[in-house]
Design a protein that fits this description.
- This protein is of the alpha+beta class.
- The protein contains 2 helices and 5 strands.
- Strands 1-2-3-5-4 form a 5-stranded mixed beta sheet.
- About 25% of the residues are buried.
Length: about 150
């Protein structure tokens, strides 16, 4: 298995273990279009942009950087006028994203699979008014630096 595939699996495992009560999205590319939106909380991991770092690593290795898109989706189970509960649900999804950040800070090499895995940023809380309900969505980026064999 290629190193990038091992990293993908490790990223999913790390997120799955640091979040309680989350299921995995079937389609992480369009988080709001999932059957799992019937669940209260879900996460997704998708490959994002990658690049060659052009670092010398010997004749048979290539230095790479790959981003992973992380999505958290929480079903909004509150009436329109209940501002306090909406605020609490916003806080909850951001706190869950902070748990993910803490997990990557605590395991920056993904158990020695990569050189460095860094939580880069999240895009804040988005409101999704979907066909199956209303949701809060937070998307984030993780950058991973690694060497792979050519």
């Amino acid at each position: 298995m290629a190193v990038v595939s091992e990293i993908f699996d490790s990223v999913k495992d790390l997120i799955g273990t640091c979040l309680d009560g989350y299921k995995e999205l079937e389609n992480p590319f369009i988080p709001e279009d999932n059957a799992s939106n019937l669940w209260n909380k879900a996460f997704g991991v998708a490959f994002a942009n990658g690049s060659n770092l052009e670092l010398f690593a010997g004749c048979s290795k290539i230095s790479c950087q790959r981003a992973f898109a992380i999505s958290l989706v929480n079903k909004l189970n509150v009436t329109q006028n209940n501002i306090d509960k909406k605020d609490n649900q916003q806080k909850s999804i951001i706190e869950d994203m902070m748990k993910i950040k803490a997990c990557f800070e605590g395991c920056p090499t993904l158990d020695s699979i990569c050189t460095k895995a860094v939580f880069v940023a999240d895009g804040g809380v988005e409101f999704i008014d979907g066909q199956r309900g209303k949701y809060f969505l937070v998307e984030a980026a993780i950058d991973v630096t690694f060497f792979d064999t050519i």
